[in-house]
Structure formats: C-alpha cells, structure tokens
Amino acid sequence: MENENILQKRSSNPKIAILLFSLIFLFVSFYESKKVILWEKPQSQKYDAFNHVSLAFAKTSEKIKADLGLSSFFQKENLFWSKIKMSPIVFSQLPATSTKEELPEPIQKLKPPYRILIIGDSFIAVYGGVGDTLERTLLAYNDITALRKGVVSSGLSRPDYFDWNSQAKTLISQFNPNIVIIMLGSNDAQSFSVAAADGKNIIFKYGTDEWFREYEHRVSDFLHIFADKNITAFWVGFPIMENKTYSQKMQKLNSIYENEAKKVKNAHFVPLWYLFTDKNGDYTAFLPDQNGKYMSARLSDGIHLSYFGGQIAVNAIIQELKEVISPFPSQKD
Amino acid sequence: MTFTTFEFFLFFAVVLILNWYLKRWPLIWRLFLFASSYYFYSILDVRFLLIIFGVSVFNFFAGKFISEDSFKFKKILFIYSIAANLLVLGLFKYYDFFRVSIESFLGKMGLAISLPVLAIILPVGLSFYIFRTISYIIDVYRKKIKPCKSILDFSIYVAFFPQLLSGPISRADEFLPQLENGGAKEIDNLYGNVSLVLLGLFKKLVISSYLALNLTDDVFAVPQNHSSLAIFLAIFAYSLVIYFDFSGYTDLAIGFAGLMGFKSPINFNMPYMSQNIQDFWRRWHITLSNWVRDYIYIPLGGSRKGKIRQYLNLMITMILVGLWHGSATHFIFWGFLQGIGLAVTHIYSDRKKEVSQTLPQKKWKNILNWSLTFNFISFSWIFFRSETFGNGIILIKNLFNFGKIVEPFQIYIIAVMALGFLLFLFEKQITKKLTDFQQKLSLFPWITFVILAIILLFELSPDILPSFIYFSF
C-alpha cells in the first residue's frame, strides 16, 4: 500500500520530470555529441542561445571523450550502428557484362579491401538510374564494399537545405572509404546567397562570374575533404539533357567539375556526356544495346537515366575505377 | 528548433524547471509561458512573431467587442474578423496559387495580365493557429464561450509552443481554463507522458524517417524509374510514413505539454483500423475533423437539408480540407476523393438502415470493410504525397506497368513496414505496457532506462532527419 502511494506520488511529481529531462539532455547530448554537431547549424540561428549552449556542450563532450581515450570506442560504436542500419539487399540482379580485360598501368594503385562510398543527388538517390545500379554492380565483386547515400534535390548550392560537406565528413568517419564516387549538382544551377563579411547575405545570380567563382570554390573544397583523407575521388559528370537551356547549364557545370578534379590530388572526372548523344552530338532518348537493338536510355523527364541508361553510365564508371584498382576483383560466385 | 533536436531537449529542460518553479506567481508564470513560446517561434524566423502577435491582438479585441450585446456592429465585426483571419491565411498560403490561376484564366480569355509576384514565405503553424482564432471568434459570437479577459492568456492560447507548429488544434474552452490560478499543480501521469515522448520519437526517428528516406521519397520523386512492386510498396509505406510522422509529432506535443501540466485533445485514435471513411475521419487528425464539422459542415447545413445537399456539403467540406493542406490541384483532388468516400459511405449506410438495423455485423464483413477503407485511404495518399497531380497519375500508370525489372530491395524496408503495421495494430497495448513497465521500476533504473531508450532511438535514426510533414501545412 505504502509502495503504491510512493509510486502514485512519483507519477505526478514535477520534480521527477525536471530531474529526468535535465539528465536526458546531459547524457544523451554527451553520448550523441557527434550528431549534435552534425545536426545543429549555428549559421542559421545566430541568436539562439540554446543552439550555442548545445553545440558548446557537444564540443566539450568530444574533447572529454578524446581526453579519456574514448574516441576510438565511439568511432567503433558509430561504425557498428552504420552497419546495423545497412540493410541487406534482395532481388539483386547481377550485371551481364564481363569485366576481364587487359588494363593499362594504374595511376595510383589501391589495395583491397575497396570501400567505395557513392554519394550524390537524385541520380544517386533514386532506384534505377545510376546510384543503385552502381551499388548493385560493385557489391557483386569480391573485396568491394559499397555504401550509397543519395539525397533528392540536394547539391552544393543550398547547404542550408542539405550540407554535403558535413555529411561527407560524417560518412568518412563512419564508413572509412578509400574511394568515393560523386554525382552531384543537377539542382545547382540556381542563385544562392553567401554571407558577406558584414554579416549580411548577398545573392549570387546563376550565370555571373562571381557565381562560377564561388561554385568552383565549393567543388574544390568538397573534393579536398576526400583528398585530405587520401581518398580517391571520381566525379561523374552529367549526360546531355533534353532541354537545351538546362543542358547548357549542366555542360558548364561539367567543365567546372572536370577542371577542379584536375587540380586536386587523386581526383578524377568521369565524362558521361557523349555516351548519351546521337551521331550528331544531340540529345537522344534511345541508344542501341549490345545487339544493336534500340532501348530507352532516358526517362520521360529528359534528365534522369533508365535502367539501361544507368548500365551505360555504370560501365563507364567501372572503366575509370579500373585505372586505380588493378587487378580488378573477380565477381562473387 | 523541433522536438527531435538536441537543443530542444535543452530548451525543454530549462522550460520545465521554470514552468514548475514560477507557478507560485501566476502572472509571472503566464508571462514566462508567453515568452518561451515566442522565443521558440522566433528561432524559426523572427519575422513570424509580428504575424502571430498581430493575429493574437486583433482576435482578442474582436472577440471582446463581438461578445458585447450593446455593440451595434456585432455581426459586421464578426464577418470582418473571419474574413480578416482568412485573408491572412490566404495571403501567406494561397496568394501564389490564385495569382497563377487568375493569370492563366485571363490569359486564355485573351487578357494577358501579370499580377505582382510577392516573395512570401509561409509562417510555419499559421494554418493551425488561424484555425484556433477562427474557432474562438465563432464560439464567442455563438455565445458558446465567454471572451478571454486577458490578452496575455489569449496570446498564450494562440502560441503555446508544444501545439504551435502542427497542433493539436485545441479549443479556447479547453485550453484557457488551464491557465487559471497557476494551472495544474502536478503532472497527470508522468509515465504516460514519457511513454508518449518515447513512442513519438520512435515513430518519427525510426519508422517514418527510414521509410521516407529509403523508399517513398525516391519513388514519389521519379515514379517512372520504378517497378510496379516498388510503387505498390511505396504506396502502403507512405500510409505508414504520414501516420507515424504526424502522430509521432502529436505524441511528442501531447507528451511535452502533459509534462508541463497541460492536457491536450487527442488527435489520432488508431485511424487505420477504421471500418469506413466516415470512421476514418473520426479517428484521423481528430481536432481538424471536429473543427471542419463544427465550423464548415454544420453551418453549410450538414445533414439537415436533405440527402443530396448533405452529400454536396460533405464534398465541399472535404475539398476545403484538401485546400487547407496546400494550394495545389493534387491536394484539392485528394480532398475530393475523401468527399466521394464520405458521400458513398453515407449513401451505403443510409440504404442499409432502410433494409435492416438489427442484423449483427459478420466478422468477414468487418475485414472486408477494413480492407476497402485502408486501401482507399492508401490510394488517396498518392495525390496527397505527389508533388503535382500529373506526378500522381504517372505513378498510377507505372503501378500497372508490369514489364519493368524489379529493382534491388533493402530487406529492412519490408521489416520496418511490418513493424509499422504491428505498431498501429497494437499501439494502445504497447503504450500501456510501456507505461506499466516504467511504473514498476524504481527511480534510477527508470531514469537509466529512459536515457538509454532515447540514445538507442537516436542511434537508429538516419543521419539526415526529414522535417515533419505537417510543418508545411
């Protein structure tokens, strides 16, 4: 009876709730400090005291963890959860193409196991197309582990919508890749705002010199995140698009990716443009397969790729991978 | 700052301490509730404060004058107040929709005009708090409630942070008495509220986010790219995504408010167990359903003006519900489908009543009714989720395109969907078991359990968390 009374009192006692939620903040934020840093964006919430305190607390937690020698435990723990969340795949169909070919001398030979991170926008995120065909194909080889992370409508223009730089760092710490394949930017040909020195935001209109300069910086910074960790990067360019204006924009962005990749250590550019053109170099939705039969390579939106189109792109990417992976692993039985 | 962020946990811990400590000084406590709600809202965009403050002040004084019998222009002010509220909603939410529609209509008539393009952002939660103020004005006019005497209390009612962004849409007569004399002195069922917080986090962080990021976002973005099987699964997965997203938010809102000593109206009552569409709308977004019933359907005549008129009223009401969600054809069509569903349910039940009212319902009939209802609701969500009406049609076309190769599938999608179905089947039992389990633990094991459970939920959450769906309405 007395016990019941104590429980009843506890069930309505505000002090217990206060104790609980204070401890929740302290322990959960300490334990999840990495996620706090990733999730809380200080740039958009200048006057939010709770944001600042929360971030400062997470940064201190990270320091305490490092001082206590717990960093490697939390890194392993992060990887453990990443693996738990990585779902096995069913219904996978192995690619029909054979991969045994005579190869040129590799540029920078990587050693197995190959941990390949695939990141990008809708080209990578959606089923079919490039991302999952690539992931599926790579997973069919020995010594290759692949992790795909695609976010629809993301890019480098709007870090306020999705911040690829911090996401890339997290993925590197969690997955520890030695190769990254990037296909990003189909939503980037748009104006964006940049914080000026006086704290105000200036709008850079797409097409202006300042826009291109800023975008080049962003691409370069992004590639350096991988180069700094000695990760070989492949930036996959866009195929030709149906809409002429949009296509011109994508061609311009391709040239930026290609130029920036040239400047960064261990970065490569994979062109897809001419794999999807007709004899005259124009857009075509239909391309011949191995038997000469014409198949749809594009979707009706004139942007994304069909399964067949995805296979063409993936074959081109694999060819480039062979430049750094030699001998290329055999397929799993 | 949303309920699933770490800074919110800090904010809430501080609010909880001050909320209970300041209650001994009722005025300071109410000032604190006002300030904390406005602070919470300002984090999203400080400009939103002007709008919510303007709406609160206007409706407070409008309600005051409308309630005075001696006031000559009572009816005019009442109509003007409703119109003003709708105008605010219309300007922020529907201006672009009407601009484009009018321009295109006049363009077809040969009158090419262009109305000014206004770069308007929709203040999050506007639709919810405008509905609160409209219900207040109507209830005061109908003399169902007395006008609020304190502008401070009224402002808290409009902006109370747990309910601000996505409801539940509480009524003034439910909420305002809870501010009297320093409000509740103790928590009504601490463990039950903690269960709601845990369950809400699980629904949002684990189930809804996983299915959205790994299946539904992809399929609805480019349906042409998917096999019939993927689309089929995505349609049912979206039923889970939207339910667990919105009911997860509501659980958190009710749980957090409960821990502060406030009671909130329930918003969901196992909606996917409904036997027909009418039943569904009694269980889904209940506070919105009740709102449209009381302030749109009944004033339109409800069922009092004959059968045909009743069906028409149902259609009009549900189309307006669709429009409330957003100014786009696909939402209107979704509302239209709900209206059809409701009208057909009424026609069927009216005819059945004529035949026999006493026959017991057979079990197989219950299963058939449930299945028809769930499939209809899941099908109608296609238009709710699709970015355009055309995209919805493309998705349906591709659903029946059986020639496409089935894409590789993550087994977890099936597992999470199965988990989701089990959760909505046994939600009440699970909540009760979770509450009972907590009650049995002594203090520190209980605190450890809650903390570990929350850490586990965050670990299972994706690295990028999609926003709550109802923030955009």
Structure class of chain B? mainly alpha
User: What's the rounded overall pLDDT mean of chain A?
Assistant: 82
Indicate the percent of residues in helices of chain A.
Answer: 40-55%
Query: Gyration radius of chain B, to the nearest Å?
Result: 24 Å
CATH homologous superfamily heading of the largest domain in chain A: SGNH hydrolase
H and E order of chain A: HHHHHEEHHEHEEEHEHEEEH
How far apart are the termini of chain A?
A: 67 Å
- Strands of the widest sheet of chain A, in order across it, are 3-2-4-7-8
The number of helical segments of chain B is 19
Q: Write the CATH architecture name of the largest domain in chain A.
A: 3-Layer(aba) Sandwich
How many E-type strands of chain A?
A: 10
DSSP strand tally of chain B: 1
Largest sheet of chain B: none
Instruction: Name the beta content range of chain B.
Output: under 5%
Strand content of chain A: 5-15%
Low-confidence stretches of chain B: none
What is the global morphology of chain A? globular
Secondary structure tally, helices of chain A: 11
User: Most extensive interface, residues per chain?
Assistant: A-B, 68 and 62 residues
Structural Rg of chain A = 24 Å
Structure description:
The complex is a heterodimer of chains A (333) and B (473). Chain A is an alpha/beta fold. Chain A has two domains: 2-76, no CATH class; 107-321, SGNH hydrolase (Rossmann fold, 3-Layer(aba) Sandwich). Helix content of chain A is 44%, strand content 13%. Chain A has helices at residues 2-11, 14-31, 33-39, 49-67, 71-85, 122-125, 131-139, 164-175, 209-227, 244-263, 307-321, and strands at 89-90, 114-120, 144-150, 179-183, 192-195, 201-204, 232-236, 267-270, 286-288, 294-296. Chain A has a five-stranded parallel beta sheet with strand order 3-2-4-7-8, sandwiched between helices. Chain A has a two-stranded antiparallel ribbon with strand order 5-6. In chain A, strands 9-10 form a two-stranded antiparallel sheet. Chain A is globular and about 85 Å long. Mean pLDDT of chain A is 82; it is low at 92-106. Helix content of chain B is 71%, strand content 0%. In chain B, helix 9 runs antiparallel to helix 10 and helix 9 packs parallel to helix 19 (443-460). The longest helix of chain B has 35 residues, at 74-108. At the A-B interface, helix 1, helix 2, helix 3, helix 4 and helix 5 of A face helix 1, helix 9, strand 1, helix 17 and helix 19 of B. Strand 1 (89-90) of chain A pairs antiparallel with strand 1 (409-410) of chain B, so a sheet runs across the interface.
